[in-house]
User: Fold this.
Amino acid sequence: MSSNKAKKSKGLFKSKSRGGEDPLEEVFKRALQKPRIFKNREVMRSDYIPNRLPHRDEHIKRLGEILAPALSLSKPSNVFIYGKTGTGKTAVVKYVFKRFLEIIEKENLPLALAFVNCRISGTEYRVLAELCESIGIKVPFTGLSKAEVFSRLRRGLKEKGLLLVACFDEIDALVKSYGDNLLYELSRMNEGMDDCGLTIIGTSNDLHFKDYLDPRVLSSLSEEELVFHPYTAIELIDILTERARLAFKDGVVPQNVINLCAALAAAEHGDARRAIDLLRVAAEVAERNGDEVVKEKHVKLAQNIIERGRIFEAISTLPLHSKLVLISLLLLTRGGISDPISGMVYQTYREVCGQIGVDPLTDRRVSSLLSELDMLGVIKSDLVNMGRHGRTRRIFLLTPPSEVEEAISGDDLLSSLLTYKPSVTRR
Ligand code: ADP
Ligand code: MG
Assistant:
C-alpha cells in the first residue's frame, strides 16, 4: 500500500518536473499586470453609494423635506417608499441619511438615524436590537424577550431625549415572516413622548405589500408615500455613464457598450442594479480575456453569466415540492417527452415522491406550483384543447436541462432522483 502511494506521488512529481504547462503561470501574469480596465473597482459594487444620483433629485428633495422637521427637533411623518428592485430606493435613503448625518454632527443635534435591512437582519428581535444599538444601547445577540428589547428602546429614547429616524429597508421581508405586529407596536411607541420618539421609513420592492398590512398600521406607516418608477433606457445611460467615468480607465468603455447595458436592463424593468451588474461583469470578462476595451460581445457573455446565476439562485432556493415538480419535468424531457401534458407531470411527480418517501401534494397544489414556476420563467405552460377531453396544459422546460441539474445537484437526496426513469418514458 505505502509503496504504492510513494510510487504515485513520485509519479506526480515526475510529471510536474517534466514541465509542460504551468497552469498558474498565466493566472499570475495577468494578475500582476497593470490594471487596464478598472480604475476603481469599488464604484461598481452594488452597495456603493455615489455622490450623485441622476434622475432622483425629486425623490431626494421630497424625502429631505419630509424629514427636515427632525432638524428642528419635531417628529417627522412616517414615510412609505415603494418601487421595483433597482429603482434607487436604498440608494436615495442612504444618500439622504448621509447628508443629514453631516448636519447632525455639525450642529450636535439629539437626533439619531438607523438603517436596518430587514431581509438581512431576518428577525424582529434583530431589528429591534439594531434600533437599540443605533442609540447606543447594547443588547445581547439573543436571550432577552422581544418585549424587553422594545421597552429598552423606548426608555432609551426617553432618557436620552432622542429623536430616532429609522429606515426599515425591505420591510416586506419582515412583515411576510412575522406579520405587522411589531410595526403596530412601534407606531404606537410615540404616545406619551413629546420631544423624542421614532419616525419610520419603510421601503418595499413588492408593490402589493400594502395588502399585508392592517389598515391602522398602513395609515400610520404611509403618512407620506413616495413611489419610485423604473428607470427608462435614457436614464440608465446617464446613471451608467456617471459610474463608468469613476470606475474605468478612459476610453475603455465605449458608448455603444453603455447603451447596450442600459437597453437590456430597461427591457427587463428599468433596474439600475441590473444595468450596473451587466457593465461590471462585462468588464470582468474583458479583463479576464486580456482585452483592452469592453465590447458588446462581452456584454452578451455577461448577460449569460448573470442569467445563469439568477436561474441557479431561483431554482436552488425553491421549496421542496416545487423542486420535485421541476425534476419530474426534467426527467420527462430527458426521456424524450419535451412537452408533457400536466397529467403526465403529476403522475411522474407522484412517482418521484414515492422514490424518496415524501407524501405527494394534491393535483391542485401541484398545478399552482407549476404556475409559480411559470412566473419565475423556469418553465412555460400553454393551455391546449384536447377535443372532447376538454382542455389541459402542456408544460415545457424553459431552462436548459443541464442548468436545472446543476442547481439540484447540491442536494444529495434530490440528485439521487436524476437517474430515475418515469413510467411513461419506459413504455
Ligand atoms: P432598490 O433599493 O430600489 O432596489 P438600489 O438603491 O439598491 O435599488 O439601487 C440599485 C443599484 O443602482 C445600486 O448600486 C445603486 O447605487 C444604483 N442606483 C440606483 N439609482 C441610481 C441613480 N439614480 N444614480 C446612480 N446609481 C443608482
Ligand atoms: Mg433596496
